[in-house]
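Below is the record:
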Amino acid sequence: MAGHQLSGREAAERLGVLGIDRESARRALLAGVAGPGRRTRSAILYDEDAVEELAQSRLARVDQLFMDELPVACRSGMVVARSSPRRPDPGPGRTWKGVDLAAPREEQLDAARMWFRMSPWTRVLVRHRAQSRGFVPFVLTVSGFVALGADVIGVDVDDSRGAALRLNEPSEWFETWRGRRFTTGTGSTWQWWNPDVDPPATRIAG
């Protein structure tokens, strides 16, 4: 028997205890951070138990991920990007972009990996780190919730669209990030974050 269902508004209000506004909570729910929503004729409904578990999660509530918790693979630099719920993208290479955690994994990675406006210097940096160390950690967030992780193994470039990351499934480093929140602020949709150089500049919840 199915558990109690919450409307999108009710679910967003429950997530307010995490200190996020209703619109940010709505975007996170649409992306699937509390499990897939059930669409009806007039609304999207969410499982109350899943929403409440997220709202009460210790990992989603704590203000700071201390440096001694960060995996070694992340300490010398990683790519952190922010996105939004799934939306159509009729361009070549994929049919949608954004975050949909209920979608097949291969589609999720295709939606996450492109396109980014990166300077030539940054592309060279990411390529060099990927080649010399095997991969660069990549984290994708929606409304501050960590939605997806991957290993960057290369960078492709389209002159008109920007950079597309070549992604593999994440290795062990991502276990530390599951269920956490990472606040990237405003501005560019991605950043190169080097915690050894600039640990306090980006707040990590968890």
